[in-house]
């Protein structure tokens, strides 16, 4: 059982607002009390942390991340633990384990392993299949030989292997069988994301109409916004309840377009890292699934063809980038916490510093760098 902890004299950033001189109490793995000023009272055995006026945010939640620290999530439990530890140092306390395109048999094994991790590790929020149900025309860094349309047999095999932990599936809605697959996945409790798609606005809207609720890394791996062919981004912006993922690393999406998205879809932008193994590690050669990647100056590209191959981003950097180009701090933090939590149906317990929520928090210094991180009440990183 984690120790009871009081963090006081903090600027609490939660649910899109900032509270000065605030405090929180963690009892076990839950936030049990919150207030302002000196209304807190320490009990014997409490750890008392003076935030010194620094920002205290919820733990960041990454719903689209493939690895980090030199490790790829596709490579099993030890690699997942290594990558999550790197992201934890930058404020990410919970993550959906994203897998790139692979044969169905390999994905069955991987989601089954992630299911076991989900049950024993609070940091793991299930799996995300980014492939193989993607359009070849917008495949990005996915092996074209392994892409195929969704079929009911494959969907059932993956759902059975995941045993209730298949959190998210990205698919291209224009593929044969995609709308039926969306219905089946949603009925089983998974979130469906539109992505890696050549879909028109109408085709994307059809997926939203049958239950898709996320747009995978908006603007990337899909048609752009054209004044006579608006594409899936405008369909997502115009549809209430659709969360748009944004990779704010200065490479995937221009700052002006990031600002446009935040303005057009308030409360529906989820910052994601889409990080691959090179995040928090050195430049050089890497594998992304079955494809070779070269990372130069922190930018990952396929060796064959040069397509962007994920990122080397962390959510801590994504939040700072968003703030640097004009997004209010509270909005940027919400996009890395409560918004992604809501996107996967966990917004009633994760992503906010509110009573009853998970005791996940990040203490940020004046440069908005993480100096201490708590996950489920445990101190898991400190400078």
Automatic annotation (TrEMBL):
Pfam families: Amidohydro_1. Its EC number is 3.5.1.25. Its cofactor is a divalent metal cation. Keywords: Carbohydrate metabolism, Hydrolase, Metal-binding. Gene3D superfamilies: Metal-dependent hydrolases, Urease, subunit C, domain 1. Zn(2+) binds at residues 130, 196, 217. PANTHER family: N-ACETYLGLUCOSAMINE-6-PHOSPHATE DEACETYLASE. Belongs to the metallo-dependent hydrolases superfamily. NagA family. This is N-acetylglucosamine-6-phosphate deacetylase. The lineage of its organism: Bacteria, Bacillati, Actinomycetota, Actinomycetes, Micrococcales. The gene is nagA.
């Amino acid at each position: 059982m984690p120790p009871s902890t009081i963090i006081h004299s903090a600027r609490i950033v939660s649910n899109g607002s900032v509270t000065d001189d605030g405090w929180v109490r963690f009892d076990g793995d839950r936030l049990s009390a919150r207030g302002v000023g000196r209304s807190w009272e320490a009990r014997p055995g409490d750890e008392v942390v003076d935030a010194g006026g620094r920002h205290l945010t919820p733990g960041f939640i990454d719903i689209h991340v493939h690895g980090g620290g030199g490790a790829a999530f596709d490579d099993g439990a030890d690699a997942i633990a290594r990558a999550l530890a790197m992201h934890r140092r930058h404020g990410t306390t919970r993550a959906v384990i994203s897998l790139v395109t692979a044969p169905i048999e390999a994905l069955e094994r991987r989601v089954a392993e992630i299911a076991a991790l989900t049950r024993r590790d609070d940091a793991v929020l299930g799996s995300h299949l980014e492939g193989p149900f993607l359009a070849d025309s917008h495949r990005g860094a996915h092996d074209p030989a392994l892409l195929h349309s969704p079929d009911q047999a494959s969907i059932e095999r993956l759902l059975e292997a995941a045993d209730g932990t298949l959190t998210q599936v990205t698919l291209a809605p224009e593929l044969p069988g995609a709308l039926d697959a969306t219905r089946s996945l949603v009925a089983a409790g998974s979130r469906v994301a539109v992505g890696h798609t050549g879909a028109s606005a109408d085709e994307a809207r059809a997926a939203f109409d049958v239950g898709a609720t996320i747009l995978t890394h908006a603007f990337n791996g899909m048609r752009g916004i054209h004044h006579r062919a608006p594409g899936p981004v405008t369909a997502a912006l115009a549809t209430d309840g659709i969360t748009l993922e944004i990779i704010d690393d200065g490479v995937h999406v221009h700052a002006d377009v990031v600002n446009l998205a935040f303005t057009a879809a308030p409360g529906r932008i989820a910052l994601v890292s889409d990080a691959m193994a090179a995040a928090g590690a050195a430049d050089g050669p890497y594998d992304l699934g079955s494809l070779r990647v070269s990372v130069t100056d922190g930018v990952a590209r396929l060796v064959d063809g040069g397509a962007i191959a994920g990122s080397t981003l962390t959510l801590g950097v994504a939040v700072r980038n968003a703030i640097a180009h004009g997004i209010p701090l509270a909005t940027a933090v919400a996009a890395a916490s409560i918004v992604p939590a809501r996107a996967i149906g966990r917004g009633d317990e994760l992503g906010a510093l509110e009573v009853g929520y998970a005791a996940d928090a990040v203490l940020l210094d004046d440069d908005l760098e993480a100096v201490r991180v708590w996950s489920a009440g445990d101190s898991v990183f400190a400078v």
